[in-house]
Amino acid sequence: MHEMSLVQALLTQLTSLAAEHDKKKVITVTLTIGPLSGVVIDSFQFGFDILSAESNLTKGARLIITSPTVSYHCVRCGSIQTAAMRPDHCPECSETLLIAEGGDAIILNQVEME
Amino acid sequence: MCDSCGCDLASNNHSHDTDSRIIEVHQSLLAANDAMAARNKAHFEAMGAVAINMISSPGSGKTTLLEKTIERLKKKIRIGVIEGDIETDRDAQRIRAKGVPVIQLTTGGACHLDAAQVHKGIHLLEKEPGGARLDLLFIENVGNLVCPATFDLGEHQRVVLVSVPEGPDKPAKYPKAFISSQIFLITKTDLLPYFDFPVTEARREALHLNPRLQVMALSATSGEGFEAWISYLEGLTGKTRKDNFPPLLSQS
Ligand SMILES: Nc1nc2c(ncn2[C@@H]2O[C@H](COP(=O)(O)OP(=O)(O)OP(=O)(O)O)[C@@H](O)[C@H]2O)c(=O)[nH]1
Ligand SMILES: [Mg+2]
Ligand SMILES: [Zn+2]
Ligand SMILES: [Zn+2]
User: Fold this and answer.
1) Which of A98, B59, B77, B196 lies 20 to 30 Å from A8, alpha-carbon distance?
2) pLDDT tens digit sequence for B28-39
């Protein structure tokens, strides 16, 4: 459950953002969690539900998580496929060696606070 | 540079509007870890060391491999070890018995090492006899094939290990560790006669995820396959440190 460590990092960041912008309550938090980030979104949500309830700043805050697609770059012909699942081979030239690009990010995009 | 938003506007004529409800952040949740990892890397290089992060499930043979590696190389290469475990200093005791500087980090429950813990570890290691100048620094991560993969420790090379009894489907099931590593080590090959572990299939699946992965297979018990591992390590220490290591794939 390294998701808990990441939720902790998020809450720390929310606390300092609230102090910096003089806000008292977090309403929504928008995140991007890539399919190759090694983070299970359900576990992240579960951790957030537990830990966010421990402080008035984040109690009841809503998470909006988007998961981007990954680009697969063919090492032979250079063509690029975007897909949710890793393709077995390049549709252009049948090469099986495809390099994943993107999809590993865990980004805090926006916070709505009041 | 503006501390609040990191923008390069030197003038004072942009405000951080405290009335707006939506605050744009667009920063990695791992930003703090990654910044510390970058400091660790500079620290490793100041010590003269190439750092290797070892990731595997519990019991894949990380400590045994380090014991045998130290026996083989310690006369030629200055080796240090940072051990990560949830509890106990047993792995550090095993390494200490081989006569190289070692420190134990216990995470007290956490399932992975992070850059801040390793930073503390570097400072402790430097206080050990011979721990301040090293050629190779091994970081044995907490036994776990999932969580450690997300946390850059500042290492130059990441090695993922799978032992023969675990089965060849591990790359497909736990992709992140394989995508983010440079080396895939299949361990305990002396057990191949007793388990259904087609080495070619494990290799193919791992390369499918990460075509740049270098795959090796060895047994710490019989010594089979050890030469390739040893020459890989010797090659790391022989090169000029700063520029010869490809950046970690998929680190963000
Ligand atoms: N047959 C065989 N057994 C091995 C080999 N390498 C290690 N072992 C055995 O595997 C078991 C676990 O080895 P360790 O080196 O402690 O594994 P580890 O990955 O450090 O374990 P954790 O630190 O707990 O994650 C021990 O009983 C070792 O003797 C090998 O090459 N062949
Ligand atoms: Mg061990
Ligand atoms: Zn975990
Ligand atoms: Zn192609």
Assistant:
1) B59
2) 999 999 999 999
